[in-house]
């Protein structure tokens, strides 16, 4: 086995890249980066009924969006079937596997008998030492591995520790079906060996597979990669993660307005930690991550924590960088379409100017789009219910006064407009809020927005005065 660490992420293209898969990919990627190794990608598309090209595309798209790059071309497991067959035939030639001619009826009988006797259903090895000359006519054989019958198979796992499996429980499992197709158990071993994989990092639902796969490695005389079976993710209530907890595809997280960097930081903290560090840069994670530090227990997924962390990332991010990500994400956001339609050089500049105020109030890009909507609203603005209640009869008089005060401002800025409004409020014996609230409603159509003087600055003199005038009339 090479000295260089080679990990692999091996999803099945039967659906999107779900959040648990994304974390597995991240742990493989981080470990490869941490050790100056590489991560490979294999698409486990042997289940022809359920594998789709659309799912493969969604997985590649999800990994790319997260920035989890892999080395070389993705390997298709299905396309390697001839190689899987070749190894199965080699094992028969070496006396480590054999042709089994048991019929479906016989296998069923075996299962029924075991059940009646209260034993787990196991193949009874009836063709293990028989000669093929005894084979019944017209039965296509499967190939079964000769599993050891005594002692135990030991898996030395970086996360789970030493796990022992009694060999009597492993039975002679099938590696090549009677139709000539390899089983998943066999294909995985051949692929990992041929791809030079040194470290297998995957969900702990594969832990029992590790014993059977070790049997195949040993039969071929191949080095067994270092295994690491990471615990699954549970919902915040401790139950297995499901749709209601957030077991969604990563494309759903993009649509909900999460930043890839924040999502990766959050996923890394599910089952692994570095002291009390909550917010970690990609560089920090690469430096600190080691697979042996992953917890054995299941991690809990918490949307509120993810949202809070996302807000931290947005506030820390440079305004121009956040604007670029925001614009790139708009097509995926439900409320991004109107903004996308109204984007031009002028509105882009306005968005950039408004960004400091917008990002202070938003925890996701969806909330950011919501906050930015006022920039793209068409005159006369349609006020939402709360805003409309702020612009009643008396406030209209206040708006009128504010309009006159602002009309006199020529050097238009946050400071000059604030000074004019404060002066007007003092003169009219009004609290600043009594002027700012109807003003905000008239300018944005909302009761909440970035600071009202920031809004005035970003909209500019002409548009601001026109919007206020609309509401007075």
TrEMBL record:
<feature type="short sequence motif" description="'HIGH' region">
    <location>
        <begin position="11"/>
        <end position="21"/>
    </location>
</feature>
<dbReference type="InterPro" id="IPR049940">
    <property type="entry name" value="GluQ/Sye"/>
</dbReference>
<dbReference type="Pfam" id="PF00749">
    <property type="entry name" value="tRNA-synt_1c"/>
</dbReference>
<keyword id="KW-0436">Ligase</keyword>
<protein>
    <recommendedName>
        <fullName>Glutamate--tRNA ligase</fullName>
        <ecNumber>6.1.1.17</ecNumber>
    </recommendedName>
</protein>
<feature type="domain" description="Aminoacyl-tRNA synthetase class I anticodon-binding">
    <location>
        <begin position="333"/>
        <end position="471"/>
    </location>
</feature>
<dbReference type="Pfam" id="PF19269">
    <property type="entry name" value="Anticodon_2"/>
</dbReference>
<comment type="subunit">
    <text>Monomer.</text>
</comment>
<feature type="binding site">
    <location>
        <position position="243"/>
    </location>
    <ligand>
        <name>ATP</name>
    </ligand>
</feature>
<dbReference type="InterPro" id="IPR000924">
    <property type="entry name" value="Glu/Gln-tRNA-synth"/>
</dbReference>
<dbReference type="InterPro" id="IPR045462">
    <property type="entry name" value="aa-tRNA-synth_I_cd-bd"/>
</dbReference>
<dbReference type="GO" id="GO:0008270">
    <property type="term" value="F:zinc ion binding"/>
</dbReference>
<dbReference type="GO" id="GO:0005829">
    <property type="term" value="C:cytosol"/>
</dbReference>
<dbReference type="InterPro" id="IPR020751">
    <property type="entry name" value="aa-tRNA-synth_I_codon-bd_sub2"/>
</dbReference>
<keyword id="KW-0030">Aminoacyl-tRNA synthetase</keyword>
<keyword id="KW-0648">Protein biosynthesis</keyword>
<keyword id="KW-0547">Nucleotide-binding</keyword>
<dbReference type="InterPro" id="IPR001412">
    <property type="entry name" value="aa-tRNA-synth_I_CS"/>
</dbReference>
<dbReference type="InterPro" id="IPR033910">
    <property type="entry name" value="GluRS_core"/>
</dbReference>
<dbReference type="InterPro" id="IPR020058">
    <property type="entry name" value="Glu/Gln-tRNA-synth_Ib_cat-dom"/>
</dbReference>
<dbReference type="InterPro" id="IPR014729">
    <property type="entry name" value="Rossmann-like_a/b/a_fold"/>
</dbReference>
<dbReference type="InterPro" id="IPR008925">
    <property type="entry name" value="aa_tRNA-synth_I_cd-bd_sf"/>
</dbReference>
<dbReference type="GO" id="GO:0000049">
    <property type="term" value="F:tRNA binding"/>
</dbReference>
<keyword id="KW-0963">Cytoplasm</keyword>
<dbReference type="InterPro" id="IPR004527">
    <property type="entry name" value="Glu-tRNA-ligase_bac/mito"/>
</dbReference>
<feature type="short sequence motif" description="'KMSKS' region">
    <location>
        <begin position="240"/>
        <end position="244"/>
    </location>
</feature>
<comment type="function">
    <text>Catalyzes the attachment of glutamate to tRNA(Glu) in a two-step reaction: glutamate is first activated by ATP to form Glu-AMP and then transferred to the acceptor end of tRNA(Glu).</text>
</comment>
<comment type="similarity">
    <text>Belongs to the class-I aminoacyl-tRNA synthetase family. Glutamate--tRNA ligase type 1 subfamily.</text>
</comment>
<feature type="region of interest" description="Disordered">
    <location>
        <begin position="111"/>
        <end position="131"/>
    </location>
</feature>
<feature type="domain" description="Glutamyl/glutaminyl-tRNA synthetase class Ib catalytic">
    <location>
        <begin position="4"/>
        <end position="307"/>
    </location>
</feature>
<dbReference type="GO" id="GO:0005524">
    <property type="term" value="F:ATP binding"/>
</dbReference>
<dbReference type="GO" id="GO:0004818">
    <property type="term" value="F:glutamate-tRNA ligase activity"/>
</dbReference>
<dbReference type="GO" id="GO:0006424">
    <property type="term" value="P:glutamyl-tRNA aminoacylation"/>
</dbReference>
<keyword id="KW-0067">ATP-binding</keyword>
């Amino acid at each position: 086995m090479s000295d260089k660490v080679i990990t692999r992420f091996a999803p099945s293209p039967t659906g999107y890249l779900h959040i648990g898969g994304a974390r597995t990919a991240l742990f493989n990627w981080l470990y490869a980066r941490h050790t100056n190794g590489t991560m490979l990608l294999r698409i486990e598309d042997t289940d022809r009924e359920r594998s789709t090209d659309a799912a493969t595309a969604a997985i590649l798209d999800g990994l790319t969006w997260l920035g989890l790059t892999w080395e070389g071309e993705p390997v298709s497991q299905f396309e390697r079937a001839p190689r899987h067959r070749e190894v199965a035939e080699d094992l028969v030639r070496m006396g480590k596997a054999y042709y089994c001619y048991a019929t479906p009826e016989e296998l069923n009988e075996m299962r029924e008998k075991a059940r009646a006797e209260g034993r787990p259903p196991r193949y009874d090895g009836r063709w293990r030492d028989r000669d093929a000359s005894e084979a019944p006519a017209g039965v296509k054989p499967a190939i079964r591995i000769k599993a050891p019958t005594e002692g135990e198979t030991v898996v030395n796992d970086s996360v789970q520790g030493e796990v022992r499996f009694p060999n009597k429980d492993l039975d002679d499992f099938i590696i090549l079906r009677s139709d000539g197709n390899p089983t998943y158990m066999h294909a995985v071993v051949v692929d990992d060996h041929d791809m030079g994989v040194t470290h297998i990092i995957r969900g702990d639902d594969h832990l029992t597979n590790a014993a059977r796969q070790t049997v195949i490695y040993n039969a071929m005389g191949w080095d067994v990669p270092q295994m690491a079976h990471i615990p699954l993710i549970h919902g915040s209530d401790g139950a297995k993660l499901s749709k209601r907890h957030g077991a969604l595809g990563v494309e759903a997280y993009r649509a909900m307005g999460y930043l890839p960097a924040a999502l990766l930081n959050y996923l890394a903290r599910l089952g692994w930690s570095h002291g009390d560090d909550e917010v970690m840069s990609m560089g920090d994670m690469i430096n600190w991550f080691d697979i042996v530090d992953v917890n054995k227990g299941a991690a809990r997924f918490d949307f509120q924590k993810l949202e809070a962390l996302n807000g931290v990332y947005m506030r820390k991010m440079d305004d121009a960088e956040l604007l670029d990500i925001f614009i790139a994400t708009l097509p995926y956001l439900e409320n991004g379409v109107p903004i996308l339609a109204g984007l031009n050089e002028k509105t882009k500049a306005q968005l950039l100017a408004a960004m400091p105020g917008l990002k202070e109030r938003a925890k996701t890009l969806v909330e950011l789009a919501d906050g930015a909507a006022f920039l793209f609203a068409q005159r006369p603005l349609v006020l939402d219910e709360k805003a409309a209640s702020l612009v009643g009869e008396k406030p209209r008089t206040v708006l009128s006064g504010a309009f006159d005060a602002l009309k006199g401002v020529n050097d238009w800025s946050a400071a000059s407009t604030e000074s004019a409004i404060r002066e007007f409020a003092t003169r009219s014996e009004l609290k600043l809020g009594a002027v700012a609230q109807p003003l905000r409603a008239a300018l944005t159509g909302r009761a909440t927005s970035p600071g009202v003087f920031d809004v005035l600055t970003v909209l500019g003199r002409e548009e601001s005065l026109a919007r206020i005038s609309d509401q007075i009339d």
